[in-house]
Design brief:
Residues 1-22 are annotated as: Disordered. Its EC number is 2.4.1.1. Belongs to the glycogen phosphorylase family. The two termini are 22 Å apart. The protein has 2 domains: 81-95 and 131-412, Glycogen Phosphorylase B (Rossmann fold, 3-Layer(aba) Sandwich), CATH 3.40.50.2000; 492-810, Glycogen Phosphorylase B (Rossmann fold, 3-Layer(aba) Sandwich), CATH 3.40.50.2000. Strands 3, 6, 9, 10, 13, 14, 15, 16, 19 and 20 form a 10-stranded mixed β-sheet that branches. Strands 23-22-21-24-25-26 form a 6-stranded parallel β-sheet, sandwiched between helices. The protein has 33 helices and 26 strands. The chain has 833 residues and is α/β, with parallel strands linked by helices. It binds 1-deoxy-1-acetylamino-beta-D-gluco-2-heptulopyranosonamide. Residues 137-139, 142, 291-292, 339, 377-378, 383, 452, 481, 671-675, 693 line the site of 1-deoxy-1-acetylamino-beta-D-gluco-2-heptulopyranosonamide (CR6).
C-alpha cells in the first residue's frame, strides 16, 4: 500500500524505524538540540539572540519530539486502513501551542532544567508566543478540544480548516468603547506549521457548465470555471497526551495560481497581474468576526468552498492510496460538518464522484450520504445560513445544479412520505424562493444530525427542524459538548491539578470520570483548606497577569465573579450590569449599608462583532459603570469591575482557574450549550445560571444545592412571548430595577450626558428581546443566595470541590466517545510508542 506522509501525499512504503531519528529525551540532549536550533536554525549565538529567537528555538526543539511520533502515526494509520475522522471546520481556536506540546511529550522537567542551565526562563519564553486566533468563540474552541481528544484517544483524525492570515481582531478600549485592530499573528514567524506548497490544490470558481457525451454515449456534465486559486496546505501537529499519537490539522492558505497571473502578465499588464494575486489571496486573508450570526458575504462563501474543496481533494486524491476503490469511501472516512459553514462539501463530493470519477448519480448519492454527518450549534433561526441562489449560481454553477437535483429528489421523497400535504415539501425544501438553505442540505445529506446539549438537541428536533425529525426520527441525536482537561485543567490550573493528583493519582487527565474519587475529600477540612489555598494562589496569579498585561488593579479578596464569552444580547451581559448598578445604587442611595455588601470582583471578557452596534453599546456600558463604581469611595473598595480587553484563550487560561462564581445567564432556550460553563465548573467555580444549554446537565450532575438556578424556563419564555411581553411592567414592579435603569438613563455613568445610553435603556424598556427585565428579580434573589453561601467558607468550598468531582462528564474525551459510538463508528488505532 501507499501511505500518507505528514503532508498527506502518497509516499514510499514505510520502512519502520529507518524513516526518522528520534530525539533524546534528557536534559543534555535538550540543551544540545536547543543550541543547534538557535545557532543554525536562527543563525544567532545565545548572547546575541533575541527573545523571539529563543522562543523559536525552544519551540522547534520541543516539536522534534512530536515530529518523530507524527511520522510513525501516519505510517501506521495507512497500514491499518483505519477510518479517518475528517473534521471540517471554518474555525479552530487553538490557543498557545508550546505548553501543550511540552505537556504532551512529557518534557516539563527537561525543558525547565535545560533552560535553567542556559540561564533562561521558560515563563519568559512562553509569553513570547502569540496564540493563533483562528476562531470566534465556542464553536472554534470546541473544534480544538475535539481534535485534542481524538489524538489522545488514538483515533485517526485530520482537522481541516483555513489558515487565516489575520485571526480574530484585537480588541482595545478607547474611552471604554471597543476598537478593533488586525491580528497579524504570523508576523514573528510560526514554528508550529509545516507548509507544503508542492501539494497545493487548485480550486475553481465561476463560469458555466456544459453537457457532453462520454465514450459510452452517456450524458455527463463538466464545469467550465472562469477563475481559480491555489490552496496551499499548512500542517500542524495535534499531539495526544503522552500516548505517542500525533494527528494532523491541515489549514489551507490561498495563493494566486501561476496561470491566472501569467495571463495578465503576458498581456502586458503587470499591475493587473499583481492585482489578481491580491484578489486570490484575499480568500484566506481574514476570519469573519461574527459569532452565531451568519455573514451572507460573497467572500465568505468563497472561503467556505475554498477550504472544503481543498480538503475533499486532499483526502481522496492525496491521503487515500491511488488505487483506492471509492465505492468503499464510507469505510475510510467520515466528514463531520461543524455547523453549516462547510456544507458546500456535500455537492463538492457529489461533483467529484460524478463528474471526475465517473460514478452514476444514485451510486454517488448513496456514498455521499454515508460520508457526512452534521452538527448544528445554534437555536437562533436567524443564525442558520442561507445563500442567495443568484450568488451560488454565479460562484459555483455546477454545485447549484447538483443542489437543485438533490432538492428535487428530496421533495419527491417528502411528497411520497406525506401524501396530500403540499406545504411540507415546500417548508422542507433545500432550495427556497431566493435562497439555498444550508441546514436543510446538511440534514438531508448527513447520516446523523446532532445538537450540542440535551435541551438544544430536543429544541432542534421540536422547533428548528421539526419536519425533518418527523421524517427521519432516527437521524437526530445529541452529543453534549465537552472541553479538554489537558488544556483547561492540567495546564491552566497546575495548582489544582497537583492537588487532585496528590489525592487521587494522575489517571484523571485521560479519564476525567475519575474525578468522582474526589467526592469524599469535599468533607475533609484539611483538603478544603488546601483547595482554598489553590484559589488564593490562582487569584494572585490573575491579579499579576492583569497588572502586567493591562495595568489593571484587581483585589484578591472577595468573590471573583466571572462572565467571559462573546458579547451577545441573548447571553445577557446587560443583566449582569443591572446587578452591579443595582448594588451600587443601593449603597449610594442608602438602601444598602456598605458593610452588608459582599466584596466582589466582577470580571468580564467579551468581544463584540464589529458590526453589532448594540453589543458595542453594552461594552461601553460595562466600562462606564466599571469606571464609576471602581472610583467611588462610598463603596469602600467592595465592588470592583475589571474588563481586560481582548479576551482570548490565553487569558481564559488565567481567568477561569481564579473564578469563584461562573455567570451563565442566557435566556432559556437560546444558548445551544456553552463550554465556558463547563471549564469554570471543572475549575471549582459555582454556577449562577438559567435552565439553558449545558447548564441543565451541569446542575443535574453537581446537584441543586451546589448550583444557583434562577429565571424563566424555556416553555415559560415561549408562553410569555406568546401572550405579549411588556418589559416596562417588569421595570415598574421592582423598585431596584426602576432605580438601576433610571440611574443609567440619568447619565450618572457618563459624566451627566444622558444621551449616551438612552437608546440602550429604551431598547430594554420597550423591546428587550431576551427578557432581561423579566428575569431581573429572580437573578437578584439568586445573587443574594450566592452572598449567603459565600459567607460560609467551608460550605462554599465543599460545593466547589463537589463541582470539580462531578464534572468529569464534560471532558471532550467523553464527547468524542459518543461521536464515535453514535455517529462515526471509527476505531482507535493502537500506536506503538
Ligand atoms: N456561539 C453556541 O452558541 C456552543 C458552541 C459550541 C455556539 C454555543 O452555545 O457551546 O457553538 N454556536 O457548540 C455557534 O457558533 C453557531 C457558539 O460558539
Amino acid at each position: 500500500t501507499q501511505v500518507g506522509s505528514p503532508s498527506g501525499a502518497p509516499a514510499e512504503p514505510p520502512r519502520r524505524g529507518l524513516g526518522h531519528v528520534a530525539p533524546r529525551h534528557d536534559v543534555e540532549g535538550f540543551v544540545g538540540s536547543f543550541m543547534r536550533e538557535l545557532n543554525y536554525g536562527q543563525g544567532v549565538s545565545l548572547t546575541r539572540s533575541s527573545l523571539n529567537d529563543r522562543y523559536l528555538a525552544l519551540a522547534r526543539t520541543v516539536r522534534h519530539h512530536l515530529q518523530s511520533r507524527w511520522m510513525a502515526a501516519l505510517a501506521q494509520q495507512a497500514d491499518d486502513q483505519a477510518k479517518t475522522v475528517c473534521y471540517l471546520s471554518a474555525e479552530f481556536l487553538l490557543g498557545r501551542q508550546l505548553d501543550n506540546a511540552i505537556l504532551a511529550s512529557d518534557l516539563d522537567d527537561v525543558v525547565e532544567e535545560g533552560l535553567g542551565q542556559l540561564g533562561l526562563s521558560l515563563s519568559t519564553l512562553r509569553a513570547q508566543e502569540i496564540e493563533p486566533g483562528l476562531g470566534n468563540g465556542g464553536l472554534g474552541r470546541l473544534a480544538a478540544c475535539f481534535i485534542d481528544s481524538l489524538a489522545t484517544m488514538s483515533v485517526p483524525c485530520v482537522g481541516y480548516g483555513i489558515r487565516y492570515e489575520y485571526g480574530i481582531f484585537r480588541q482595545s478600549f478607547e474611552d471604554g468603547w471597543q476598537r478593533e485592530d488586525t491580528d497579524p499573528w504570523l508576523a514573528l514567524g510560526n514554528p508550529w506549521e509545516f507548509p507544503h506548497p508542492e501539494h497545493a490544490v487548485t480550486v475553481n470558481f465561476g463560469g458555466t457548465t456544459e453537457h457532453y457525451e462520454d465514450e459510452d454515449g452517456a450524458t455527463r456534465t463538466r464545469w467550465l470555471p472562469d477563475w481559480d486559486v491555489q490552496g496551499v496546505p499548512y500542517n500542524y501537529m495535534v499531539p495526544g497526551f503522552r500516548n505517542g499519537r500525533v494527528n494532523t490539522l491541515r489549514l489551507w492558505s490561498a495563493k494566486a495560481t501561476r496561470g491566472f497571473n501569467l495571463n495578465s502578465f503576458n498581456a502586458g499588464d503587470y499591475v493587473d497581474a499583481v492585482r489578481a494575486e491580491t484578489f486570490a489571496e484575499k480568500i484566506s486573508m481574514v476570519l469573519y468576526p461574527e459569532d452565531s450570526t451568519p455573514q451572507g458575504k460573497e467572500l465568505r462563501l468563497q472561503q467556505q468552498y475554498f477550504f472544503v474543496a481543498c480538503s475533499v481533494h486532499n483526502f481522496i486524491n492525496q491521503v487515500l492510496p491511488s488505487d483506492f476503490d471509492l465505492h468503499k469511501l464510507p469505510d475510510r472516512v467520515i466528514f463531520q460538518l461543524n455547523d453549516t459553514h462547510p456544507v458546500i462539501a456535500v455537492p463538492e463530493l457529489m461533483r467529484v464522484l460524478v463528474d471526475e470519477k465517473g460514478f452514476d448519480w444514485d451510486e454517488a448519492w448513496t456514498i455521499t450520504q454515508q460520508c457526512f454527518a452534521y452538527t448544528c450549534h445554534t437555536l437562533l433561526p436567524e443564525a442558520l445560513e442561507e445563500w442567495s441562489i443568484e450568488l451560488m449560481g454565479r460562484l459555483l454553477p455546477r454545485h447549484l445544479e447538483i443542489i437543485r437535483r438533490i432538492d428535487e429528489e428530496f421533495r419527491a421523497e417528502v411528497a411520497a412520505a406525506f401524501p396530500g400535504d403540499e406545504a411540507m415539501p415546500r417548508r422542507m425544501a433545500i432550495v427556497g424562493d431566493h435562497t439555498v438553505r444550508m441546514a436543510h442540505l446538511a440534514t438531508v445529506a448527513g447520516s446523523k444530525v446532532n445538537g450540542v446539549a440535551e435541551l438544544h438537541s430536543q429544541l432542534l428536533r421540536d422547533k428548528v427542524l421539526p419536519d425533518f425529525s418527523a421524517l427521519w426520527p432516527e437521524k437526530f441525536t445529541n452529543v453534549t459538548n465537552g472541553v479538554t482537561p489537558r488544556r483547561f485543567l492540567r495546564l491552566a490550573n497546575r495548582n489544582l491539578s497537583s492537588l487532585i493528583t496528590e489525592a487521587i493519582g494522575p489517571g484523571w487527565v485521560t479519564d476525567l470520570d475519575r474525578l468522582r474519587e474526589l467526592e469524599p475529600f469535599a468533607d475533609d477540612p484539611a483538603f478544603r483548606e488546601r483547595f482554598r489555598e489553590v484559589k488564593r494562589l490562582n487569584k494572585a496569579t490573575l491579579a499579576r497577569t492583569l497588572q502586567s498585561r493591562n495595568g489593571i488593579e484587581m483585589p484578591t479578596t472577595g468573590i471573583v465573579d466571572i462572565m467571559v464569552k462573546r458579547l451577545h444580547e441573548y447571553k445577557r451581559q446587560t443583566l449582569k450590569v443591572l446587578h452591579i448598578v443595582s448594588l451600587y445604587e443601593g449603597v449610594v442611595s442608602g438602601r444598602l449599608a456598605v458593610e452588608d455588601v459582599t466584596p466582589r470582583v466582577f470580571a468580564f471578557g467579551a468581544k463584540a462583532a464589529p458590526g453589532y452596534a448594540m453589543a458595542k453599546q453594552i461594552i461601553g456600558l460595562i466600562n462606564a459603570v466599571g469606571a464609576t463604581v471602581n472610583a467611588d469611595p462610598r463603596l469602600d473598595g467592595r465592588l470592583t469591575v475589571v474588563f481586560p480587553p481582548n479576551y482570548d484563550v490565553t487569558l481564559a487560561e488565567k481567568l477561569i482557574p481564579a473564578a469563584d462564581l461562573s455567570e451563565q445567564i442566557s435566556l432559556a432556550g437560546k444558548e445551544a450549550s456553552g463550554t465556558g460553563n463547563m471549564k469554570l465548573a471543572l475549575n471549582g467555580a459555582l454556577t449562577i445560571g438559567t435552565d439553558d444549554g449545558a447548564n441543565i446537565e451541569i446542575r443535574r450532575l453537581v446537584g441543586d444545592e451546589n448550583f444557583f438556578l434562577f429565571g424563566l424556563l424555556e416553555p415559560q419564555v415561549e408562553e410569555l412571548l406568546a401572550k405579549g411581553y411588556d418589559p416596562a411592567s417588569y421595570a415598574a414592579a421592582d423598585p431596584r430595577l426602576t432605580s438601576a435603569l433610571d440611574l443609567i438613563a440619568s447619565g450618572a455613568f457618563t459624566g451627566g450626558d444622558a444621551s449616551v445610553f438612552s437608546g440602550l435603556v429604551d431598547n430594554l424598556l420597550h423591546h428587550d428581546r431576551f427578557l432581561a427585565l423579566a428575569d431581573f428579580s429572580a437573578y437578584m434573589e439568586a445573587q443574594d443566595r450566592v452572598d449567603a453561601a459565600y459567607a460560609d467558607p467551608e460550605g462554599w468550598t465543599r460545593s466547589a470541590v463537589l463541582n470539580v468531582a462531578r464534572c468529569g462528564f464534560f471532558s471532550s474525551d467523553r464527547a468524542m466517545r459518543e461521536y464515535i459510538d453514535k455517529i462515526w463508528h471509527a476505531q482507535p488505532v493502537v500506536t506503538s510508542l
